[in-house]
Q: What sequence folds into this?
């Protein structure tokens, strides 16, 4: 942390800031500048709360210099993490496709869609048994019955299944049935749930909060890793902005940032970002081209009869088209080695 | 809901939309326009999911015409709700001030601050026992020990206490000690927690989510009312925007909107919105002037030694000043009757 | 426009709204609903200002049903517009690459970079002669000298040139030298400049405003078309959001939306969206994959000595890599016909 | 500027950054930290472009430490600027009210409204002669005829008048008629217009851009001061956010920030922020309570017949109410001296 003092700060005020820092057991290093003094805070084991010094007399602002995360950081673990979901890898050079309906509605519905997406090339099956709904009057999911249907789908198709958990109370149950446990957007900073996920033996799919910075998102993952579970996949699903032509704004720049800052894999969910069918395929292509490790896509064979989010679900034929296009795109720029791919290789003059 | 068809929609496509609507048991009414047809959906008991029709061939868009909430709506209950927190009212013409430290750190700290804020005129004491922290390495609160300290503060000062609950697992405990249970920003759409709050016998303070629309916020309150607990106070605490000079952007227009749409009281939290001390008093004045029913303010006698959020905590002397100013402002525009106050009275020509 | 009345609206209030609408010469059509009345406004030649009725007694809200734009609309002109920039086409199935430095600094600099980007496959050369700078103390461009350098580059390389115009006063001059005139983000709603562009004989590159909805952006283009100039290319360059890891957030969903709503071509500018070099190539790939008609990319042979925006400029070697990757991606999903490409073809069941 | 190096940066990379800084004529000071090196840039006369170093090998990020503005800064001129608009002061302890219709429609309309607002206590009359409109098909203002009507209003009522200028071409004309020239939201970064305003002999009302940070806004004012015109008033009018219950989100925290950072006065425009009548009075009260130096409010005697923005215009009776309320509020907290008012006085322990 760098503490920038006012131009008019007195030596007493500067000393007072130094004292506060040292009283916490950190090192304070004064840095005289052209027309003002700054004070560096060093040797702090964890992140420093800016409120330690902001508001003290003579302090203009506190600027964080280092990242607050540790275990998720690529500086700590330089090698990519490969997550194993019931035998299906996410991470590295794989392009892993997760597909299925928004909500599990019946065995027949789930199985029909599962066979469609599997035939088209999906690797994992998704479907909600517990649904977070804005309205208490909307369909809330089949609960345990939905989990049992998921298990049947896995049994019959061999595809591992991904489903969302909404609270600690049902975590054991979800964990018992699912191959990968999803923590949804609205729960990204449900810290009790994150701690529980840290003790899970299942890989976790952690969606980005609707207003979360990448740093906050990585800190949420840090809770899980800190608890002992290193199998975490991040999922970019759009953030809330003023833009009104899509439900959320898919922030694809988060992909190169997460890849740079962290060793965890990151996939994209174009369905929830768009909120409407006609943007899903273009955004899926873009997500693969930006080099996400995979996609999560909603598919329904009868979207107009879906119990939730039908408007953003692809028809099976559309999903087939998506699969062909993203596979081709992935192949198209994947023939160059990774470092070259992002143009950050050593070979570049100065770059 | 109004379904707007494309100009080029065929009669078959229009009929197909009408069929989908009627298959759900709703009434479809076709409205021929100048150059396109719209279809109104009527007689729907609850909210209609736009995905019922968006994405169907020939559909341009679906526009929601009515509000999805019921129990929180002023259309359902025109009279203001008055919430009773251990004998202290929130709502109506009262200006209720909740003050205290971000986190309970010790009995001595809590009692010192409580006596300060009580002397200055605060009605309720706040303090966190369970703290939602972005980093797993930050101070997470004293837990039950903090709740016991809160109970001691109430015993000695007579002030009812408000504290946050973070999960269902600790809800019983928090409920046993607190006079009012707070659901924090990050949990505004933790629907399992909202359902639990619906069965609580304590009033609930529901903070607005960082990226929540007023409609989503009211729908979160609807979960609580639907569960049977009508004692809910909303708390505006700023939303996330591109603005970087304050931690969040206090959206004061939410106050007249909530007052118009709902019968529930609404208070403002300038401390979390600002994130820095020097904006708290101005924003507190503005919150009272916009006609919030109260304030929630962080106060600490030694902010530079606070274990969390010290930078936004007022010194006791500053809180005294705040109290004097907001009391004067509240008095200043409160001598006119309520309808006149907002300029929406019947007396106005045409308005 | 649909006027939704309050549930409690009286027959007199409804009649009063009908009168206001008819006094303007429009048709009012009353639509009785389940528990409230709505009133449709028909036969309005141009857009209706919501303020005609919002605020009238008994009115809950006014919902716009049709789009306010005409000439830019695909409903008016279903066929894609092809823009011709000095012989280079933008639009249709072409992928057009515009590349060059942020600012023209010298003939030597411009020519060096031009030869680099041309060799790598760029079609148009860009470079600023007049630079909009946040600070009055920053380098403001070479002005007419910069324009002359651009003309020399065209002469020697044969590449048509694109450069920004900042005001009406210099429009004639810019127009005289440039093959395509750019209107920048900060001037997207400089309506006097847009009107002047409407009388230009040069094609216009219209960048999206930092906080502009697609509708506002298309309305800005409408000003140009309304003035008589139909050669307009839209450029998505990111919008301002709370996200802080990139300078702006590239909103790639605007591409399918613009393609659906308008016949005008749309290109993307990953350099300004990112603001930092290491995100430019990934975002360029994503832009092509989402099916933008082209890219605008900043390239500098000595970015660390650039007079503006060096941090986001690619090295020539990186630009070569970008060209190879985007060409491959464009080829990869371009072998399917356009309708199939976006999954909106007639062949789909129901979709 | 502080340049933070990667943990893995080599001594050669660090030296290379130092070289780049010194080649620009600045001083580079290396600051060894716990696990990484930072480099301070000193003795730079103007702002340093981060692109000087961002993107260089080994550089993690560049953090700006000082503010880029000079002439508008309170560090340069500690005393409040008082702006004189035809004899009416804005700034200091005054509460200055600017009121009138959105657009001048006729002499009769202007005069009627002017007499209303004057009687209610307004100090300045506003009204648009040139209107920036999203649609080219909307009413664009009366032009010079509108300016003449403004002059007549001033003549008859004695109230100085404020009106918007949209381009350099009409600046002379507007300047000839108006007592204060307004630069609108969409032109906040129209740098040619700002430069022209810098040579004006009229005070300038500079509205905040819809997506502008306070820093960018102050830099826009810096253009005007740098040109020689020190009479600038800033106007907060809301920023664009995801919030959809008001047209924009009034960012009242900008008021204490501007007051702290700059000596220029700041007023608020609740009409454009709200976009709907029923929020204007509450937001006006809040703006005065947050300690803005004044208000700009739209008033129309027949809002349902207004040619633009009628929905946000107050009826004359509502404006009277507003005047009474804001006057009372201003008086209520103005009896304490300024320093005490914001709780930042020397008397506070540590604060």
A:
């Amino acid at each position: 942390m760098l503490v920038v003092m006012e131009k008019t700060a007195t030596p007493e005020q500067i000393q007072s800031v130094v004292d506060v820092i040292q009283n916490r057991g950190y090192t304070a290093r004064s840095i005289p500048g052209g027309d003002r003094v700054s004070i560096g805070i060093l040797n702090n084991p964890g992140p420093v709360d800016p409120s330690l010094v902001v508001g003290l007399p003579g302090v203009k602002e506190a600027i964080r210099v280092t990242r607050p995360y540790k275990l998720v950081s690529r500086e700590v673990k330089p090698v990519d993490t490969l997550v194993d979901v019931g035998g299906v890898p996410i991470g590295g050079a794989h392009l892993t496709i997760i597909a299925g309906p928004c909500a599990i509605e019946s065995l027949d519905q789930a199985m029909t869609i599962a066979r469609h997406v599997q035939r088209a090339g999906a690797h994992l099956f998704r479907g909600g048994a517990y649904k977070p709904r804005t309205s208490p009057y909307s369909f809330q999911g089949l609960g345990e019955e939905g989990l049992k249907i998921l298990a049947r789908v896995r049994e019959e198709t061999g595809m591992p299944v991904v489903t969302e958990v909404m609270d600690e109370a049902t975590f054991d149950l979800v964990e018992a049935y699912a191959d990968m446990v999803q923590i949804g957007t609205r729960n990204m900073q449900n810290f009790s749930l994150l701690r529980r996920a840290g003790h899970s033996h299942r890989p976790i799919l952690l969606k980005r909060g609707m207003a979360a910075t990448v740093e906050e998102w990585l800190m949420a993952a840090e809770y899980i890793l800190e608890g002992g579970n290193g199998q975490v996949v991040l999922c970019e699903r759009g953030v809330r902005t003023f833009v009104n032509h899509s439900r959320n704004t898919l922030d694809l720049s988060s992909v190169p940032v997460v890849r740079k800052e962290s060793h965890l894999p990151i996939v994209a969910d174009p369905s929830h970002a768009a909120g409407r069918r006609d943007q899903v395929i273009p955004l899926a292509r873009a997500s693969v081209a930006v080099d996400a490790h995979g996609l999560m896509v909603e598919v329904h064979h009868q979207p107009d009869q879906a119990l939730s989010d039908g408007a953003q679900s692809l028809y099976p034929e559309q999903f087939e088209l998506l699969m062909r296009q993203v596979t081709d795109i992935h192949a198209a720029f994947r023939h160059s080695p990774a470092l070259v791919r992002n143009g950050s290789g050593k070979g570049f003059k100065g770059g």
Observations:
- Chain D is about 35% helix and 15% strand.
- Chain D has two domains: 2-63, 83-340.
- Confidence is low (pLDDT under 50) at residues 337-351 of chain D.
- Chain D touches chain A at residues 2, 4, 7-8, 27, 29, 31, 33-34, 36, 38, 40, 42-44, 55-57, 63, 65-66, 75, 240-242, 244, 350-351 (CB under 8 Å).
